[in-house]
Amino acid sequence: MATTVQPQTGAKPAAGLSNEEILRYSRHLIMPEVGMEGQLKLKNAKVLLIGTGGLGAPLGLYLAAAGVGKLGLVDFDVVDFTNLQRQVTFGTSDVGKPKSEAARARLANLNPDIQIQSFETQLTSANALELFKDFDIIVDGTDNFPTRYLVNDACILLGKPNVYGSIFRFEGQVTVFGMPDGPCYRCLYPEPPPPGLVPSCAEGGVLGVLPGIVGSIQAMETIKLILGRGDNLVGRLLLFDALGMKFRELKLRKNPNCPMCGTNRTIHKLIDYFEFCGVRGEEAPGPTVQVPEITPRELKARLDRGDDLFILDVREPHEYQICNLKGHLLPLGELTRRLHELDTSREIVAHCRSGKRSAEAVDFLRKAGFRKILNLKGGILAWSDEVDPSVPKY
Amino acid sequence: MPVKVMIPSPLRPYAGKRDSAEFAARTVGEALGHLTTEFGELRKHLFTEDGKLRSFVNVYVNDEDIRYLAKENTPTKDGDTISIIPSIAGGIR
Predict the structure, then answer these.
(1) What is the predicted pLDDT for the residue at A275?
(2) Does the residue B91 lie in any domain?
């Protein structure tokens, strides 16, 4: 059953295409499923992308190329060198630039006939409704739980569709929330997982092509919603397993008791989503556990002095292969089981990549009775910056 | 033919890196019981301390959410597939 999303906002709809536009979109125009009518629907559509990263890259490129008349790009981040492995909107020369602006420039070059607005800001409860109101469809390509609940709730409050996609390592999930009679994100996941129980993408990694595939499916669903063609993913959760190269789908039901979209709604305005998600969320800013620390320079000085220090590396074996400080490898997840490998009488310095996992390890070991234990502040990244630049950063 | 339990990648580190496991079970609860007996570390990721399925872990029998069936008491028959679908947030900025 096809559902069309009617443009809800803005100026008078465009009534025709220029000759140049007719040429640009000719492969759409010769398809009866799109045609002139469909292309004009695309031209009059307004789509807001939350996040211009991995999922946002194919989304922005395909929606701009397809002729979606107005695209909004929300991102507060800057292009990092490690983004280039998957965020194909950006080039090497974009590193250090704001993502929303770099993406805007790239998409404007791809299609100068469309309007592109970049919003270099973090989506918050204070600005979400104002940002969303000028758009017909919201596409969620964010990377953290607080923003996902925020996007969902704002879409429900405003009655706008939310084209949802998320990825982890080799797996993706795609669906469409926020349609009349369809379920919302809270129907699927009433509550977020507590921080720490689900590894973040920075820890888990992601194969670069995966967001390309999942974001492309989101782009396809967005275009189908605009055209009112085909069967969209409302009420269906599409699961993609890239390793097994399998697509599966599960039925998503609207929860009659959903606090957001159920008949007895209990949430009537946007809330504090960081608090809702246990303060930290997945990659939200915030302190990790407070433990005694040592800076890379202090550690270097003590090692040079010949102090007897036991270096404990709590990363994974494949990370140890990238680079290491010749420490004893004992992954955080195996600490409980392999505690006997550690000597309480020796002074231990624990480290990981950035200092976060090792802080958890130090906290755990202190509770287990270890007294002489320090966390290497900033991890191997800081060691590379402050002590030995020959150690690669990843 | 027993029931197949699909293990999603975020939980595979706690399940001996397996992507699925098979058990003879008459209900979803029984199958998950076998699973968490075989892989003890999985238990805290699926169940609360008082033994309830965590609210952010969705379980499906074939393509149906057990919340809309009989929850953990949902009967299973040989050849059914039980899927554990945790919430993932990644989009990667």
Answers:
(1) 86
(2) no
